[in-house]
Design brief:
Order of helices and strands: HHHHHHHHHHH
Largest sheet: none
Number of strands: 0
């Protein structure tokens, strides 16, 4: 979807309109959760799958209408910002395209680090919640809840706040960051928030600190950073949008998950790392992530100035 959206808009249009498009995605997530919760008891599991299929069909129909209206071509090529000969997709594979361009490789490594840090942070949250639940039940301070009920209620409240904050950020904050600052500044917000959160976690590894650090990190990831990640591909060629982006959004995203799983396994089975030590390791990763974000932001500014 985001490759298609990148294909439709110039960098100037995308920076303005992607905020609205991303808000549609956030709103759909909230409305979908609300609707499915109320239809579940009325329709049942399998019938609810049909509702999802109908919604998917409607989205595909809308995308085809938009593609037909826009003529099926790249607006970047039509505007003269990219040569017409690059409208067609070449034979190069996604990995070759990524590794042949520093800008794309930087984005790939940034996404890998982002997922590595975020997934490890999710483990730290789960670990801290479990310890807090065990302690609360043992001390009979869990308001009569069992360990599983304590954890379930915590995550219910946690995700409700994350989704709400993410939606509000997308609605009221993201567009203003793009308008008054720039993409090269917007890309720095999440690593700075993550650095602050894991610094606090390394010093005060208690549930409330982990909770609000992950709330800020996840809400920013789902709103501002999700929009920034899509905007970064606006000044790229059509082949890079459709091939390199898919490679980055699959292989490099999942690589971050795998590296986090390896870290957690080694940290719990061999190194016996504490929560503070896991947080300190994340701080090292976030530092590299921040350096990459500065490089990518500067390169994006250079590319958009050159293309413009």
């Amino acid at each position: 979807f985001w490759s298609f959206a990148n294909d439709l808009y110039t960098p100037e249009e995308g920076e303005r309109l992607f905020v609205i498009v991303a808000f549609g995605g956030s709103s759909g997530a909230v409305f979908g959760s609300f609707l499915s919760g109320r239809l579940f008891g009325v329709l049942g599991i399998y019938e609810l799958l049909l509702v999802g299929a109908i919604t998917l069909f409607a989205s595909v129909a809308v995308m085809n209408l938009v593609d037909r209206r826009e003529g099926g071509g790249s607006n970047l090529a039509a505007s003269g910002q990219i040569p017409v000969k690059e409208q067609t997709l070449g034979k190069s594979g996604g990995f070759k395209i990524v590794f042949n361009k520093k800008y794309l490789l930087g984005i790939a490594l940034l996404i890998l680090l982002l997922n590595w840090v975020n997934t490890t942070g999710e483990y730290l949250l789960g670990r801290t919640v479990t310890q807090a639940a065990l302690q609360a039940v043992a001390e009979q301070s869990a308001a009569g809840l069992s360990q599983d009920e304590f954890i379930g209620r915590f995550y219910s409240d946690f995700f409700a706040v994350v989704n709400l904050v993410g939606l509000l950020l997308q609605l009221f904050v993201v567009s203003r960051i793009f308008k008054y600052l720039s993409v090269s500044v917007a890309i720095l917000f999440l690593p700075i928030i993550a650095f602050t959160g894991y610094t606090l976690l390394a010093l005060y590894p208690v549930l409330e600190v982990v909770r609000w650090a992950k709330t800020a990190e996840n809400a920013t990831e789902y709103s501002l950073n999700n929009t920034v990640r899509s905007v970064l591909f606006l000044p790229t060629t059509r082949e890079e949008k459709y091939k390199a982006k898919q490679t980055i959004d699959t292989f490099f995203v999942r690589s971050g998950d795998v590296l986090s799983a390896v870290l957690v396994y080694l940290g719990t089975s061999w190194l016996l790392l504490t929560t503070e030590q896991f947080a300190m390791f994340n701080l090292v990763l976030v530092t590299v992530w921040l350096i990459l974000a500065v490089f990518i932001g500067l390169e994006y500014r250079r590319m958009t100035r050159t293309d413009g």
